[in-house]
Amino acid sequence: MDQIDRRIVQCLLLDARAPFRRIAEVAEVSEQTVARRYRALVADGAVRVRALPGRGGSREQTWFVRVQCRPDAADALAEALAAREDTSYVSVTSGGSEIVCQTRSDPAHPHGSVLHRLPRTARVLGFHAYAVLHVHLGAEAKWRAFDEPLTPAARAVLHDARTSPRDARAAALGEADAPLLVELARDGRTGVVDLARATGWSKARVSARLEELLDGQALRLAVDLAYARFGFHTTAYLWLTVNPGRLRETGDTLSRHPETTFAAAVTGSASLLVTVTCRTMDDLYTYVTDRIGVLPAVTLVDVVPVLHRLKQAGTRLHQGRLTPT
Does residue 19 form part of some domain? Predict the structure, then answer.
């Protein structure tokens, strides 16, 4: 990946639906070059932009599960978990004897969930489940550990292109939105013209409804990256024991670190879960000692490196590339 590709991705992380002409201004290339490079990144499995339902309004509970199993059974069990629609992340960790899985469960329909089936799986030696209490999010809570971050002037180009602030009215997804969601789940950058063609709606209706859903946070835009394609080969789960009185402050701080891909308060003995992605193990060591080690509220850190990831944000990975189905 060269500097142009990295700038395109950084623009997408700031504004996933930024027009190619604005990205071209930041990358200092033509609009045609940006469009061609973006399509190549998607085709290569390096980038995927999707629109997903907002985190609020659902009765489903998100869990992280650490599954202990025999090393010779880990790959098959991880594949089975990754094939499920109710899992979002599946990784093999801890020397190949543990699987970390993010899953969802509906309290009204518990039977058939991952949590219900794991105790009945012969290959499972044990597991611990952690319910997500609070996800630490903010305007800057995104992974952005590039060596050459965008300058304030470049960031301003994208910021100024956004529409002026409006009162964000509450919005809820309805059955009529289903065809719109299908297209945006496949490609969150699908244009209004193509969305109108796919849904049978007018362009004005598509624009208004999309704006309403995004402003009301009924929809959120996710930019998935195959981090190894950009030279970042070390991902780890950090299970942190944190002073309860400073849990929110610590979670917010960690979510703003460039290396952080996720931060959430969870149930269990470790009260905060953070995932980080670095270039090397040496960089991970530096992050743990220099960034985590200085936080006064953190009393214990369990560092769990990912050996390989089979599923990321609902997208399967094959040989380090995103392979949406």
Answer: no
Say which residues have a Cβ less than 8 Å from residue 263's Cβ, sequence separation at least 6. Answer: 135, 136, 141, 251, 254, 255, 272, 273, 274, 275
Place of tokens 């460039």: 258
Q: Looking at the domain assignment, is residue 242 inside a domain?
A: yes
What's the burial of 148, exposed, middle or buried (CB within 10 Å: 0-12/13-18/19+)? Answer: exposed
State pLDDT tens for residues 98-138: 999 999 988 777 677 899 889 888 889 999 999 999 999 76
DSSP 192: H
Q: Is 272 exposed, middle or buried (CB count within 10 Å of its CB: 0-12, 13-18, 19+)?
A: buried
Range of the domain at 236: 231-306
Quick: pLDDT tens for 142-175: 798 998 888 999 889 887 665 444 455 567 888 8
CA atoms within 13 A on the CB side of 198: 17
- Rounded distance between C-alpha atoms, residue 115 and residue 207, angstroms: 40
Alpha carbons 251 and 222: distance in angstroms, whole number: 20
Weakly modelled stretches of the chain, pLDDT under 70: 55-58, 110, 138-141, 160-170, 325
pTM (predicted TM-score): 0.88
* Residue 189 resides in a domain: no
Q: What is the CA radius of gyration of the chain?
A: 20
Helices (H), the chain: 3-14, 20-27, 31-43, 71-82, 114-117, 152-161, 178-186, 192-199, 203-215, 247-255, 281-287
The enclosing domain of 299 has a CATH number of: 3.30.70.920
- C-alpha 5/C-alpha 12 separation (Å) is 11
Specify if 115 maps to a domain: no
Structural domain tally of the chain? 1
Please state, in angstroms and rounded to a whole number, the distance separating the CA atoms of residues 71 and 83: 19
